[in-house]
Design brief:
Layout: H1 3-18, E1 21-27, E2 30-46, E3 52-64, E4 69-70, E5 73-74, E6 82-87, E7 90-96, E8 105-107, E9 114-122
Antiparallel strand pairs: 1-2, 1-6, 2-3, 3-9, 4-5, 6-7, 7-9, 8-9
């Protein structure tokens, strides 16, 4: 009996139950609805007038690996995949994107049950903002 693995499995279940919302993960014409825990990144921008404008643009999505299934098979995120996040009366679109030399995703836990997917918000015309 591995108490650490059991604890991590319990924690993953709790994130899914109490701290996630449904998003749509898409690659090409394939898509799947999955629960995701959100992690935002704050971008500070110079407004050109001596002030700073704060904008939420980058987002990490924590998704259970077992639920990320496309074409009937488990998959890992790829650069260019899209995640659609429902907000109020709209849907925000995020593109899976690596930052620097980092991969676009990584494991969140030693048991490799949860994916942390790095994304950048794009506008409806697929322009990164």
């Amino acid at each position: 009996m591995d108490m650490l693995a059991d604890g991590l499995a319990w924690l993953t279940g709790q994130l899914e139950t109490v701290a996630s919302q449904e998003v749509t993960y898409a690659r090409g014409y394939e898509a799947v609805d999955v629960p995701a825990t959100l992690g935002k990144k704050l971008l500070k921008l110079d407004d050109g007038f001596g002030g700073i404008r704060m904008q939420w643009t980058d987002m990490d999505f924590l998704i259970p690996a077992a639920l990320l299934v496309l074409s009937g098979a488990p998959t890992t995120p790829q650069r260019g995949d899209l995640i659609y996040l429902p907000v109020a009366y709209d849907v925000e679109t995020y593109e899976v994107l690596a930052f620097g030399n980092d991969p676009p995703w990584r494991w969140c836990d030693p048991g490799q049950t949860m994916l942390r997917i790095h994304t950048k918000r794009i506008d409806p015309n697929n322009i990164i903002i």
